Amino acid sequence: MAVKSKKKAQSHSSNELLENPEALAEQLSRGEEWFEKHKKTVFAGVAIIALAIAGIFGYRYYVSYQNEEAQNEMFQAIYYFEQDSVVQALRGDGANLGFIQIEQDYKGTAAANLAKFYIGAGYLQMEDYESALLYLEEFSSDDLLVQSKAYSLMGDAHMELEEYSEAADLYERAAGNKPTDEFSPYYLMKAALAHEKAGNNEAAAEAYRKVIDTYPNSDLVPQAKKFMYRITGA
After folding, report:
1. Answer CATH for 143-234 from 2.40.160.20, 2.120.10.30, 1.10.540.10, 1.25.40.10
2. What pTM value is reported for the model?
């Protein structure tokens, strides 16, 4: 009964506003008074929302522009890298930026992320394995083939540091990240070697067996059979 009475009262109040111009005017007046009293807060809230929206679009435009500019800067560095001029690729030549400076100047862009891959690969060639790992671990890519390559390079760095178990894990991640007939057998062979270096012949044999069973058309199958026989006798 109390609920029905409440609803009836609310209905009566609504009808009164519609049928009684004075009551409606009084209600509107109260609304105007409230608005006048709180308009600073209202306008501040609207301004904050507007600034947030503008900031989002502005930031996206800025990042897009920065990424395009960074990509243009990378052309010469990539050329040096492909010519095995690793020092110039990483540090620049005085007229053109190197990958290290590009990564620092254009943080947050896809180009800066890619620069980390090149920096890591470059430090690996320069035998600075700790620095190589630092950059490669920060790199990430939606391109699974490139990401697999990054895992493999990290494995190479750990191999040089004689951290064989870590290397084996990374090679197996490379092989399984996006399995392909071309690259996965190669990564598995590297994983097997790392397992052997770590003294884990069982894991090594499993990696060799996976090459043989999963990639029977690979050119690496004869070598995998030979190495598996060497450690298992079968």
Report:
1. 1.25.40.10
2. 0.72
